[in-house]
Amino acid sequence: MIEYDFEKSISFWVGLTSHLFETALNNELAGTGITPRQVQVLACLALYGEPAQNELALQLRIEPSTLARILDRMERDGWIERCESPQDRRKKIVRPTEKVTTRWEKIIECGERMERRATAGLDPAQLNTLKETLAAIRGNLGAEM
Q: Which of 75, 76, 95, 130 has the fewest CB atoms lying closer than 10 Å?
């Protein structure tokens, strides 16, 4: 029999919570035609502008081949377009389409509703401590943001 005290494992709690966040966001997004992973792509575009596809994979911390499949579906469904880079024709720049512009507010509402549910009963000081703690953990693991 294998044994481990998961109750004391920070990685267990963070992983479990992350999975529940994604499940809750997926439920909120039901009917919008977009997935949580696709929302992450759009969030990166909102944060960083219009990166090359390989840069976007680095920002999302996923394999380029995984991102290519996600972008294929997003392009098929009209969420993004991939254009040649003016500096390097081999690079593809990822841009949101007009479809995102018209639906972004609804997507944000879904995320905010899920976040309100997740943080119900927590006061601002607790939320600030949580953000600081997670930022410290990210820093310890080598994340720049």
A: 76
